[in-house]
Design a protein that fits this description.
six-stranded parallel sheet, two-stranded antiparallel ribbon, 10 strands, alpha/beta, elongated
């Protein structure tokens, strides 16, 4: 192959006939049965195949053309390769067609309130109370939270009672023989020190100019009252008032009944896959997942309609000032 190529070179450029060639291509030439180039993707791998003997010119020059847009359009293969393999900017999230929310409902803890610092501090104090600072408070807390969610599906207990029950189960799971049920008070006491995420109040103020705002929380009224939220809401829905929690839909059905609105007029935003989406989506609610921690969606969870890394993108979704709804001025009540 090298000698054949050198012969072509000497024929085209006689002055190079005596030039010594140090490197020569000796690969194969790929022809397709239809004599057409094939560019595409298979199992996540991009390919450009069967250039029918013209790949060096078509692909090499074309790639340069695709990158610089300065070479003739005739080098289209490279432009095609660049187009296929260059990441596309993500499309802007938008509301489902025909969906015009009048009410915006929000999960509280983890969505509006930055709970991890206070929660982990409280559970570190719980482990210190039991003399077990050798345990990881985040792992202990995560198991405790999972048990809470499991108990949400059972006949109604107050949130505080569930917290106590889950703590005893966490003690058993981690072998904490010296744990006291009363130590859960460290957790209850931390609610008054919880802080909002920085984007919360500006976002709610903007959205509240065109929509009514509601809270939907798996919580007892007194703990919600102890949480510094910085503003009032038009409707407050708690597990205590609904006599049930989100995952089985009880709390969301309470939201629908108390608001007097159909699901087609409510946009719910929340951070929990296993309560907000598991409970809201089967009822037909439109749900925005506020995924502040960048988690992956569990395969068992109904997918949300929208995903945002924080709360403030809701303003862009609903208009620059948030005022695209038809809910009218919000009615202020402490709920």
């Amino acid at each position: 192959m090298a000698s054949v190529l050198h012969g072509f070179l000497a024929k085209l450029f006689p002055a190079l006939a005596s030039a010594r060639v140090t490197h020569a291509w000796s690969g194969r030439v790929a022809f397709a049965f239809d004599y057409l180039r094939h560019v595409g993707q298979c199992d996540g791998i991009h390919h450009a195949l069967a250039c029918n003997g013209a790949g060096v010119v078509a692909a090499g020059a074309g790639l340069l053309a695709g990158a610089t847009e300065t070479l003739p359009q005739s080098t289209s293969l490279g432009r095609m390769i660049v187009s296929i393999t260059t990441p596309k900017p993500p499309t802007e999230p938008k509301l489902p067609d025909g969906f015009e929310p009048r009410m915006l409902s929000f999960d509280v803890y983890g969505t509006l309130v930055n709970t991890p610092p206070a929660n982990f501090g409280a559970f570190q104090a719980i482990l210190a109370d039991a003399g077990r600072l050798d345990l990881n408070p985040k792992e202990f807390y995560s198991f405790w939270e999972q048990r809470n969610i499991a108990h949400y599906h059972e006949p109604y207990r107050t949130y505080k009672d569930i917290c106590r029950l889950s703590l005893s189960e966490a003690y058993e799971r981690f072998g904490v023989a010296t744990g006291r049920e009363e130590a859960i008070q460290h957790y209850f006491d931390c609610f008054s020190s919880m802080e909002l995420y920085p984007d919360v109040l500006p976002t709610l103020d903007a959205l509240g100019r065109g929509h009514t705002l509601a809270l939907v929380s798996n919580i007892d009224d007194d703990l919600l009252g102890a949480t510094p939220l910085g503003r009032e809401f038009d409707l407050v829905c708690t597990a205590e008032r609904a006599r049930g929690y989100k995952p089985d839909g009880t709390l969301f059905r309470y939201l629908l009944e108390a608001s007097g609105l159909p699901v087609s007029h409510i946009l719910h935003s929340g951070q929990s896959q296993f309560t907000d989406m598991v409970g809201g989506k089967p009822l037909g609610l439109t749900v925005a997942w506020i995924n502040r921690r960048g988690l992956n969606l569990d395969p068992s969870v109904p997918p949300p309609d929208l995903v945002f890394p924080a709360l403030h993108p809701l303003c862009g979704l609903l208009g620059s000032d948030g005022a695209t709804g038809t809910g009218g001025p919000p009615r202020r009540s402490s709920g």
